[in-house]
Design brief:
Shape: rod-shaped
Number of strands: 12
Largest sheet: 5 strands, antiparallel
Structural class: alpha+beta
CATH superfamily of the largest domain: Histidine kinase-like ATPase, C-terminal domain
Number of helices: 11
Strand order of the largest sheet: 2-1-5-4-3
CATH class of the largest domain: Alpha Beta
CATH topology of the largest domain: Heat Shock Protein 90
Order of helices and strands: HHEEEEEHHHHEHHEEHEEHEEH
Helix content: 40-55%
Number of domains: 3
């Protein structure tokens, strides 16, 4: 039994700007921390040597004396906040402190030189001590002390003075980086607009000179891909056009032969089989005509729009399907809102007529005998003008609605005779003219079902604009 491996969905890549921001913040934080650590380390050694030299000089100034009556008094604030030196003078035997500038619980060290002492657990109870060497049997011993906490605070302040400016520049650097990225991506946004405007009819590739050199290979690859797509689509269009054109003559000949044969077909089963044959040939002829229309439309030159009065065009479309509607016993009607009687569209009259012909053909074919098909030009509550083709057929299952605009797709249960190209042609014409076709299942009075094919006339002036004469 083979286990099915579900592919892990790929996470979208973060935006380039956010990626650069993250790296810039990390770079500044790292630089700030490194500068702070380096300043702390280097300045710590420098301040240690400098303070130690001051302590040695202070001790040397008292060395060799036999007696000192008193020393300047040093307060606790001066010791902890300003790093004042505390001088202790001891008897030559080191057993008794003769005089000191401050009372501290630190005895004379047995060994001369520098040492670090702790007189308690607090940071203010840590001391740097220098004990001067003995000068003679009758000379006072000298010992100088300084707060270790003061030295550490000075080193930290100096380190922060070096590192904080780098961190303080972070907002300015981020703003500068944002401006640089914005200017760099402006050309990308222009390319994105060009890409959105490209299709198989676009005559030119996107110019790669408009983008930075790093992005140029991407644009060139896109141009190459677009060229291959154009070539494939053109080959497909030529095949469809050639096939539809070549089939027109034999289908026309078959139709003429059937017309000549019809008077000679006897009644009964032969007549029924002949009717089925005629229906099949008619469907094939309709399919060939729609393929030819679709190929001409896709190969059409860029649209040369002209002002097309909409109401006369819709009336002509309804008139063309009147006979077909009578044969199927379908009531075909047309209604236009008074405020929209003078509405005009910009486009090709033949193509716009094809749009509404296909929607009407689809509605009449799928309506039940005795049903109604209405072509209605009206305005929505928002003021936007729309054309609705409303029928009383079976409707379309919601799960297949998105597929009915695909070529050759016929919904399950669709009436015979369709080719699956009508709605595809209608949607193609609508897109070419900046319109939009929407299909909606409906529930009408007396629980009658049906389909509403709505054409949104986005390019047309709104109801309120027509009413105001603008």
């Amino acid at each position: 039994m083979t286990a099915t491996v579900t592919p892990t969905p790929l996470r979208p890549a973060p935006p380039l700007r956010r990626h650069l921001f993250a790296w810039l913040v990390l770079l500044h934080l790292t630089a700030g921390l490194l500068a702070t650590w380096a300043a702390y380390s280097v300045y710590g050694h420098v301040i240690e040597d400098l303070r130690d030299e001051q302590m040695r000089s202070m001790a040397d100034s008292y060395a060799g004396r036999r007696h000192v009556r008193e020393l300047p008094n040093v307060g606790a604030d001066a010791i902890q906040q300003r790093g004042a030196l505390v001088v202790q003078l001891w008897t030559p035997d080191g057993q008794r402190q003769e005089v000191a500038s401050a009372e501290l619980p630190v005895g004379l060290q047995a060994r001369a030189g520098f040492a670090d002492l702790h007189t308690g657990p607090l940071a203010t109870q840590r001391w740097r001590v220098y004990t001067a060497p003995a000068e003679g049997a009758d000379r006072l011993r000298v010992q100088v002390l300084q707060s270790r906490a003061f030295r550490q605070q000075r080193s930290i302040r100096r380190a922060l003075a070096e590192g904080l400016p780098i961190l303080a520049l972070l907002p300015a650097a981020l703003l500068l980086q944002w401006l640089v990225v914005w200017r760099a991506t402006r050309s990308l946004r222009a390319v994105a607009r060009d890409v959105a405007a490209q299709d198989e009819r676009s005559p030119r590739d996107m110019p790669p000179e408009r983008v930075p050199a790093e992005i140029r290979p991407l644009v060139q690859a896109f141009n190459a891909l677009l060229g291959r797509l154009r070539a494939a689509l053109q080959a497909q269009q030529r095949f469809v056009a050639d096939a539809a054109h070549e089939l027109r003559t034999p289908f026309t000949a078959i139709g003429l032969q059937l017309d000549n044969l019809r008077p000679h077909v006897p009644e009964g089963a032969a007549r029924q089989n002949f009717a089925a044959l005629e229906a099949g040939v008619a469907r094939a002829q309709r399919l060939q005509a729609q393929l030819l229309r679709l190929s001409h439309q896709e190969a059409a030159e860029p649209l040369q729009p002209e002002a097309v009065p909409l109401v006369p065009l819709l009336r002509d479309a309804v008139a063309q399907f009147t006979e077909m509607a009578e044969q199927r016993r379908v009531d075909l009607g047309f209604l236009a809102a008074p405020a929209l009687q003078s509405l005009q569209l910009q486009g090709a009259p033949v193509e716009l007529r094809s749009l509404f012909d296909n929607l009407l053909d689809n509605a009449v074919r799928h309506s039940l005998p005795g049903g109604c098909v209405d072509l209605v030009l009206h305005a929505l509550p928002s003021g936007d003008a729309v054309v609705d083709v409303v029928d009383e057929g079976p409707g379309i299952a919601e799960d297949v609605l998105p597929r009915v605009f695909d070529r050759f797709y016929r919904a399950p249960g669709a009436a015979a005779g369709g080719s699956g190209l009508g709605l595809a042609i209608a949607a193609s014409v609508a897109r070419r003219h900046g319109l939009r076709v929407e299909l909606l299942n409906r529930r009408g009075p007396e629980r009658r079902s049906g389909l509403r094919a709505r054409v949104h006339l986005a390019q047309a002036p709104t109801h309120s604009q027509l009413r105001n004469g603008t």
